[in-house]
Specification:
Low-confidence stretches: none
CATH architecture: 2-Layer Sandwich
Radius of gyration: 16 Å
Number of helices: 8
Largest sheet: 5 strands, mixed
Number of strands: 7
Helix content: 25-40%
Shape: globular
CATH topology: Beta Polymerase, domain 2
Strand content: 5-15%
Number of domains: 1
Mean pLDDT: 96
Length: 184
């Protein structure tokens, strides 16, 4: 796996991932993405030659709607997704409000929100376009995730947020599952 096209292909070949993307698309959310561990875990599983899918703690669905930025709307969307796919641990967040939680200036889009994730390997999202083709968002590129290099995004590097990155990486204990990772 070396290119964005390779990542798109392995997701496209995964019927479970495609079912999730198709299900989220039915909500017609503005600027929506399925992101973070959903994408990263697939890439790392493939690169580690794992046959079984590593279980996900949650499936992160994000969108950007500055008009309806009430957290209650997110819970309604999670309920709708649970009705459609009850075995999925859904987590839905409107990036139009996440800047408040993270004490940052307002985000301009869902991808801007993705760029504010703690690790470059987590700052990834996928969605289906109007023709059902996968689109990949990788604001910090794919080099780190395909080279199994875990490092902070610029926001979490050499700032007061760096300790958040360090605590998060330690808590996740990714090396226990993916032993080839290099963590900085």
């Amino acid at each position: 796996m070396k290119t964005e096209e390779d990542i798109i292909q392995v997701i496209s070949d995964d019927s479970w991932m495609m079912e999730i993307l198709t299900t989220v698309k039915t909500l017609n959310l503005p600027d929506w993405w399925v992101c973070a561990g959903f994408v990263r875990t697939k890439i790392w599983d493939v690169l580690h030659g794992l046959d079984a899918k590593t279980p996900l703690q949650d499936v992160d669905v994000i969108y950007f709607d500055p008009v309806n930025a009430d957290e209650a709307d997110e819970k309604i969307l999670e309920s709708k997704l649970l009705e459609l796919m009850p075995d999925i641990p859904w987590s839905v967040k409107n990036q139009a409000r996440m800047h408040v939680i993270n004490n940052l200036p307002p985000y301009s889009s869902a991808v801007d929100g993705i760029s504010k994730f703690p690790e470059t390997v987590t700052a990834l999202g996928v969605k289906l376009d109007e023709n059902g083709h996968i689109i990949l968002a990788a604001p910090w590129g794919i080099e780190d995730v395909i080279n199994l290099l875990v490092k902070p995004t610029p926001l979490f590097s050499n700032t007061e947020l760096e300790r958040v990155y360090v605590m998060r990486v330690n808590r996740k204990n990714w090396k226990a599952t993916w032993n080839l990772l290099k963590i900085t």
